[in-house]
Amino acid sequence: MNELVCNLHIHSTYSDGSGNYSQIAEQAIASNIDVAIITDHNIHVRGIEKYYHKDKKSVLILTGEEVHDPNRHPQKNHALVIGCEEEVASLAPHPQELINRVRSVGGAVFLAHPFEYDLPLFNETDISWENWEVEGFTGLELWNSFSEFKTVVKNFGQALFYAFFPELIPHQPLPQTLAKWDELLSNGQKIFAVGGADAHALHFKKGLIQKTVFPYHYHFSTINNHLLLPHPLTGDLVEDKRAIYNALFSGSCFIGNDLPASTRGFSFTAESDQVSVGMGEELKLTPGATIRVSLPQPGLLRLIHNGKVIQNMPNSDRLLCTITEPGAYRVEAYIKYLNQYRGWIFSNPIFFYADRKYRNK
Known about the structure:
By secondary structure, the protein is α+β, with helices and mostly antiparallel strands. It has helices at residues 21-30, 95-104, 145-152, 156-164, 175-186, 216-220, 237-249, and strands at 2-10, 35-41, 50-54, 57-67, 79-82, 108-111, 139-144, 192-196, 202-206, 209-213, 223-229, 253-257, 267-272, 275-278, 282-284, 290-305, 308-322, 327-337, 340-347, 350-353.
């Protein structure tokens, strides 16, 4: 498999970000990002998807959309729309209609920051997802950088501190989001997870203090999606975009916090009756079915079945486990960084079924 690093949920000057596409691409190239998906608020930017090149390196810039209803108070139900070649912001007040339309044209909807605290200090409201009765969405934004920032800031001094030392923020996805994902998986739903930067690179000025808060290059160094493609990219926009979306929409990817250490090379596979599958795939459970996990370096390694930890291995880079129960299996890995264990890798599931296959919610 060919592994690509993809950063998504990025805002540009087309909405409330400070950088244009060329500036974002330049920082992505410098950070060794392979693909960046820009999702501005309620606008589908056309005509600027392409490869950007600098210093013999390149990045593929793609566009999606973060859709929400600006007339809703308080704000809720933000959705990341990816792979849809038409404007769908008018459907924001009706999440199910939005999901149905996006799916009908081959796109995907990931529920953005499903649980998020408010931040009154900066007039930021709680913009969690509320309409959990909807069906057909592809997945959840499991780890959102800005959502996590809201959990650690209580006053202006803390906000200023973390603006200058953002590497102290990332710990892991919000527990509520992990619990909701496990609930959906345990109910037999095939729901995939992505990590989002929610990057704005906002310019802050107060008195003599001037600072770009969480610049794009910071986000490119932290919460990324590592996509597993059967073949390398070809340089053809249409073909490569199709391959990238196939991996993202099918769960053939994992979330990696690349700040403590690179997550490249992580592997999670399963075998049953001489058939082998990877993340996002399903497999009929037969006697002797096994799961194999490999980390790039030792860490705290956990195997989770339907929301319950069934293997907890400190200081390990390998796991081999015989599977006897159907359900959704996923992997979490933690690594020590700045004197604390921090979330490092969160895989998409592998699904074992006995007499029925999984379904999309």
